Give the backbone structure.
Amino acid sequence: MSGFIHNHADVDWEALQAAAVQAMERAYAPYSEFPVGAAALTHDGRIVSGCNVENASYGLTLCAECVMVGNLQMTGGGKLRAFYCVDSNGKVLMPCGRCRQLLYEFRAPGMQLMTSQGIRSMDQVLPDAFGPEHLEEQL
Ligand code: THU
């Protein structure tokens, strides 16, 4: 049976938020003092997470989502079914524009994101996205 099933009934949002908070506690954010944690449920039931990692060269900062997708790839790869990002208070945080693009690449069909507006789809937070399919297009 394929792991890519449209079944979101069993998403444990509390567990995802807890994983995001745990990740946030590992943030390296001495410059912004704005720790962020991100966590996602994979199509095969793993939880992957990441924290932001800043740099003295400010613009090189890695967002929590960036570290999270690196961890996804390093721990077996696959696609993301549900996503949760938190700030230092454990409050839900919207992923920045660049990170929406990172998430788009690794979305499972029907991926859900917890947002300040409740549960949203990838298409709602990044409409008309550029994706791998566009690389195949010829002029
Ligand atoms: N940040 C993230 O980690 N993810 C986001 O989606 C928004 C912003 C981080 C980057 C920087 O370390 C800090 O939040 C302040 O911008």
Remarks:
- The domain at 2-137 is CATH 3.40.140.10 (Cytidine Deaminase; domain 2).
